[in-house]
Amino acid sequence: MTLAMLQAALLIGVGATVIMDLWGILLRRLGIATLNFAMVGRWAGHLMKGRARHEAIAKAEPVANEVAWGWLIHYGIGVLFAVMLVGMVGEGWLGAPTLWPALAWGVVTVAAPLCFMQPLMGAGFFASRTPTPGRNCLKSLVTHSVFGVGLFLSAVVVAID
């Protein structure tokens, strides 16, 4: 991967994550609960102390700067997912982005929270330990689909020759 591709992927990842966050703001304004990124920061703080799995991350001891860490990790993951997409689709896509690879990748990325983060944070695989697992999985799927659309829109903005 060239430096230009990495730079484009960085911008695409940040842009797509901003679009996903705007979606989250809309959901909250509609009264729909969304992820509190402080819990991601709390989880990471405990991970640095050697504890990866929690029964309920919200009940775990707070850690210093968990909100900032959560947002930093959130954007870092968005950039990582964009780098992975660019690595898969190649430089040609960066010159002429199309929706389907980005949207499909956005959908694939929903596996990260549903199969990795939620179980470690105490919500179970596919949100099975939450009061409304199906609804929570659907929210995650839609949010990651919005991220995929954000990958495409951001790629259009930063398209390279």
Automatic annotation (TrEMBL):
Alphabetical keyword list: Membrane, Transmembrane, Transmembrane helix
Pfam families xref list: DUF2938
Membrane-crossing residue ranges in chain numbering: 66-90, 102-128, 140-160
Name by which UniProt lists this protein: DUF2938 domain-containing protein
Source species: Pseudomonas capeferrum
